Amino acid sequence: IDPDTPTKTLKDRSLRAVADQIRNGGGKRIVVLTGAGISTAAGIPDFRSPKTGLYHNLARLNLPHAEAVFEISYFRENPYPFYMLAKELYPGKFHPTISHAFIGLLAKRKLLRMLFTQNIDCLERRAGVPGDLIVEAHGSFATQRCIDCKTEFPDDEMPAYVEKGQPPRCKQKGCGGLVKPDIVFFGEQLPSTFFDNRDVPSESDLVLILGTSLTVHPFASLPDMTREVTPRVLFNKERVGTLGHRADDVICLGDCDSGVRKLADELGWRDELERLWRGM
Ligand code: CNA
């Protein structure tokens, strides 16, 4: 956007102006959109970062192409690469980042309208964001079922299989199909909570977007479903989607934890944020 274009809602396109907006009550229905980039500092690789991303490192598994690890047809043939990945990402091993803690703080201050996450690591819950304010758009490891007859597999038996990298088999008589955690593979329908809450971004008064390449649809279209007057703030290593095209877009390039700390400083929340994070 031309730097001379006047803003509609914010004083200017800075984090200070975003903080003022929140402090003045113009950020009471905040929608947060997150992706793998908010968890890289926790030690969980993202997909697409060059060299460190999972797609780069999956090359050693001899997959026909990296995305095959999330394709049902390939999973049927060879579920082991997915289970190797599942072992790496399985919830319980990682600690939330300062960015997760910030979302927890928004919820604590009753400013969070909804968090839409593409992540499957459950770190938002661990950071204290209440489950009813989270849309896990790409599912989660919380439940699992048979890919053929769809019968659920018991939660308490799952961790041992994941730890061994061994796919369990369906227990239904005569089935024996492969069991897959309820995370969304390519071509699979997103959970109904995503569609039930799809209008929420258009009702928000501020949108924060953290650590996502905005390449996976339909999630990637959420920032564009907000009203023109709703400020959109991007915390990411690179520019993504249409962020930067609107008058009230604020772009904070770099690692999202630093960006979030800057915003917390502007809000006067920094001490509370660090305390909250250390206590997680
Ligand atoms: P992606 O396509 O890998 O993009 C990540 C984005 O974050 C890129 O734009 C990076 O530049 C940026 N980034 C990386 N590290 C940082 C950082 N520290 N600070 C700021 N920006 C950073 O991941 P998306 O989430 O956009 O893609 C959607 C996929 C990734 C979803 O289906 C997820 O399920 C999947 N995924 C999830 C996890 C997880 O649960 N932690 C891990 C890996 C992949």
Main sheet: which strands, in order across? 3-2-1-6-7-8
Total helices: the number is 10
State the shape: elongated
* Mean pLDDT over all positions: 94
Bound molecules: carba-nicotinamide-adenine-dinucleotide
Helix content: 25-40%
Low-confidence stretches: none
What does this structure look like?
The chain has 280 residues and is an alpha/beta fold. The protein has 10 helices and 8 strands. The strands form 2 sheets. Strands 3-2-1-6-7-8 form a 6-stranded parallel sheet, with helices on one face. A two-stranded antiparallel sheet has the order 4-5. The radius of gyration is 20 Å and the shape is elongated. The termini are far apart.
Brief overview:
With 280 residues, this protein is α/β, with parallel strands linked by helices.
Entry keywords:
280 residues; alpha/beta; six-stranded parallel beta sheet; two-stranded antiparallel sheet; elongated; binds carba-nicotinamide-adenine-dinucleotide
Give a topology summary:
Layout: H1 15-23, E1 30-34, H2 54-57, H3 72-77, H4 80-89, H5 98-108, E2 112-117, H6 123-126, E3 134-136, E4 139-146, H7 158-164, E5 179-183, H8 192-196, E6 206-210, E7 232-236, E8 249-253, H9 256-267, H10 270-278
Parallel strand pairs: 1-2, 1-6, 2-3, 6-7, 7-8
Antiparallel strand pairs: 4-5
